[in-house]
Design goal:
The protein is α/β, with parallel strands linked by helices. Helices cover about 40% and strands about 15% of the residues. The structure holds NADP nicotinamide-adenine-dinucleotide phosphate (NAP).
Length: about 210
C-alpha cells in the first residue's frame, strides 16, 4: 500500500522514536516489520533531541545521531528521518512531537513505535493521556520479554486508551545500542550489527571510544 496517488495523503504513518545512539539493524528490522504488518505508508525516524528521561547521561550529540539515522535509512523509500526534536529547544517530549506531526499530516492515523522498556515508563511522560489519544503505540520487544510487568505498570491508563497500545515481538532486537557502544569501547567488531555507512561514520568521528 502506497500513498494515494490522487491526493498524496498518507493514511497510516509510523513514527519511530528512539535515542538511536547508534541506530542499528534491530531498529531497521522493527520499522520495516511494523510498516508491513500495520500497512504503514511511511515511517518517520525521529531521533530524540534531548531525551527528557536521561538528563546528565553521556549521550552522543543530537546532530551526529540524526546523521547516522539518515545514513541508515537512505536505501528504503518508505523511510524518512526528521530533525524536529534535534532542532526543537528544551526536553524532547513525545507529546509535542506527535502534535507537530499531526499538524503536518492531519489526515493520517499515527503509530508511535518504540521499545517496551521505554513504554514501561510511559505513565511518567508529559501529558501521557493526551499522547495516547493522538496515536497508537507499538511497543516492541525481543521474544521472551515479560509483558506482565508492562501490563501491571499500565494499570492506571483507562481502557479506551490502553487498547491503543499494541505489542510486537522482534527477534533482531537482541542487537542493542548499549552493546554496540560497549563493543567499540573494547575494540571488538560491530560489523553486521548496523549498516556499513553508520559503522564508517562511527569510526571516522571516533564515537564511543571512551
Ligand atoms: P531507552 O530507554 O533508551 O530504550 C529502551 C529500550 O527500547 C532499549 O532496549 C532500546 O534499545 C529500545 N528502543 C528504543 N527505541 C526503540 C525503537 N524505536 N525501536 C525498537 N527498540 C527501541 O528509550 P529511548 O530510546 O531513550 O526513548 C524511546 C522513545 O521514547 C524516544 O522517542 C523518547 O523521546 C521517548 N520518550 C519520551 C518521554 C517523554 O515524552 N517524557 C520520556 C521517555 C522517552 P536500543 O538502546 O538498542 O535503542
Amino acid at each position: 500500500m502506497l500513498m494515494s496517488s490522487e491526493t498524496g495523503t498518507v493514511h497510516r504513518l509510523g513514527i519511530m522514536g528512539g535515542t538511536f545512539d547508534p541506530i542499528h539493524y534491530g531498529h531497521l528490522v522493527t520499522a520495516e516489520g511494523a510498516r508491513y504488518e500495520l500497512g504503514l505508508e511511511k515511517v518517520i525516524f525521529i531521533p530524540a533531541g534531548r531525551p527528557p528521561h536521561k538528563p546528565g547521561c553521556n549521550i552522543t550529540e543530537p546532530w551526529s545521531r540524526y546523521v547516522m539515522t539518515g545514513l541508515a535509512i537512505e536505501s528504503n523509500p518508505f523511510f524518512l528521518a526528521s530533525a524536529m526534536e534535534v532542532e526543537r529547544p528544551g526536553p524532547s517530549y513525545t507529546v509535542d512531537t506527535v502534535s507537530a506531526i499531526q499538524l503536518l499530516y492531519p489526515e493520517s492515523e499515527l503509530y508511535f513505535i518504540t521499545g517496551s522498556d521505554a513504554v514501561l515508563e510511559v505513565l511518567t511522560w508529559k501529558n501521557v493521556l493526551k499522547l495516547l489519544s493522538k496515536c497508537r503505540f507499538i511497543s516492541v520487544s525481543r521474544p521472551g520479554y515479560n509483558l506482565d510487568e508492562l501490563h501491571t505498570r499500565l494499570d492506571g491508563i483507562p481502557w479506551e486508551l490502553k487498547k491503543n497500545i499494541i505489542y510486537m515481538e522482534v527477534p533482531s532486537l537482541a542487537i542493542s545500542s548499549t552493546e554496540i557502544r560497549k563493543r567499540v569501547r573494547e575494540g571488538r567488531p560491530i560489523k553486521y550489527l548496523l549498516p556499513e555507512s553508520v559503522e564508517k561514520y562511527i569510526i571516522k568521528n571516533d564515537l564511543y571510544r571512551q
